[in-house]
Write a structure and sequence with these properties.
By secondary structure, the chain is mainly α. Helix content is 54%, strand content 9%. Helix 3 (52-68) packs across helix 12 (268-295). The site of tryptophanyl-5'AMP has 24 residues, from strand 1, helix 1 and helix 7. It catalyses: tRNA(Trp) + L-tryptophan + ATP = L-tryptophyl-tRNA(Trp) + AMP + diphosphate + H(+).
């Protein structure tokens, strides 16, 4: 079976609808026909300052949310990045193959370091995409399900894989990004031409999966809509309404065209009211399952321990190949 791999950072108390619709839903769908590796990217999280206690809590919550949304630990290796030391080890080798200018071109570094200035950003934030390349290449996956904002990191990953294969010997598979166009960039509810983002959006702009359901409903009902009154998908002219239609279609499985027909002659208020209900129905059981999983710490620990064992089997083999090929000696 073809392999899939993806990761998510534990940098908020809850995943949001951008994470879920842009990426996590595809993780769940792909696990049926693929061999999946899914992880919580705690090494990536510390590229910006984290409170240790909060990071630990969020890492567990992230794992609980993955299980609550349907990631099946019998099919998927679910693990925490720092439990598999090969990620950091391969990252070093790849850093030595990455050009300084090549790393500098990564737009997320530019965005994230823009606030405090480059001088305030850590070197870890600068080399972040190379660690991500290591995350991926260790497992030789065919597909990497992510949102649009990760496309550039996938391109770097493919470049580094090709470079290593060419310089040494064919070692890595060139992975394909798996990005679903319809949900690749979920917009901020208050600023729909920007992506919904835990670091950049205002609280009113993000629907968190673990918000109280009535809070999520209110956010949907307060979403910014556009001039005019017709419920129609038009990303350029009606970014607010189009974003709501995207979310609606994704959660219900109804094609956007059907929704447009259903709301012909109705206003934005009806659309938002109905979507708010759809969202409540969706998040309520998810939230209950997550909170229940959080209560059973020993179960979570066991899932993550088993996931790390499965991940290390694959990762250590790849790293062994890499170490041989670059000319490292083995301890006698
Ligand atoms: P992260 O933690 O920021 O986001 C997790 C996933 O959610 C997607 N996403 C979105 N998709 C659509 N619309 C949005 N508004 C939206 N916001 C977030 C992201 O594209 C991502 O797929 N660098 C990664 C984590 C990572 C990783 C990896 C991913 C580390 N190593 C290896 C894949 C493979 C990140 O920061 O995602």
């Amino acid at each position: 079976r073809p392999r899939v791999l993806s990761g998510i950072q534990p940098t908020a108390d809850s995943f949001h609808f951008g994470n879920y619709l842009g990426a996590l839903r595809q993780w769940v769908a792909l696990q049926e026909e693929h061999e999946p590796f899914f992880f919580v990217a705690d090494l990536h999280a510390i590229t910006v300052e984290q409170d240790p206690k909060v990071l630990r809590e969020r890492t567990l919550r992230a794992a609980a949310q993955l299980l609550a949304m349907g990631v099946d630990p019998d099919r998927a290796a679910v693990f925490v990045q720092s439990h598999v030391p090969e990620h950091a080890q391969l990252s070093w080798v790849l850093q030595c193959l990455t050009g300084f200018g090549e790393a500098r071109r990564m737009t997320q570094f530019k965005d994230k370091s823009a606030k405090g200035g480059e001088g305030a950003a850590s070197v870890g934030l600068f080399t972040y995409p190379v660690l991500q390349a290591a995350d991926i290449l260790l497992y030789r996956p065919h597909f990497v399900p992510v949102g649009e904002d990760q496309r550039q990191h996938l391109e770097l990953t493919r470049d580094l894989a090709g470079r290593f294969n060419h310089r040494y010997k064919k070692t890595f598979r060139l992975p394909e990004p798996y990005i679903l166009e319809a949900t690749a960039k979920i917009g901020d509810l208050q600023d729909p031409t920007s992506k919904m983002s835990k670091s950049a959006s205002s609280p009113a702009g993000i629907v968190e999966m673990l918000d109280e359901p009535r809070v999520s409903a209110k956010k949907i009902r307060s979403a910014v809509t556009d001039s005019g009154s017709e419920v129609r998908f038009d990303a350029a002219e009606k970014p607010g309404v189009s974003n709501l239609l995207t979310i609606y279609a994704a959660l219900t499985g109804a094609p956007v065209a059907d929704l447009e027909e259903q709301y012909a002659g109705h206003g934005y208020g009806d659309l938002k009211r109905d979507l708010a209900e759809v969202v409540v129905e969706f998040v309520t059981p998810f939230r209950d399952r997550t909170l229940a999983l959080m209560e059973d710490r020993s179960h979570l620990d066991a899932v993550l321990a088993a996931g790390a064992v499965r991940a290390r089997e694959v990762a250590s083999r790849t790293l062994g190949d890499v170490y041989d090929r670059v000319g490292f000696t083995r301890p006698a």
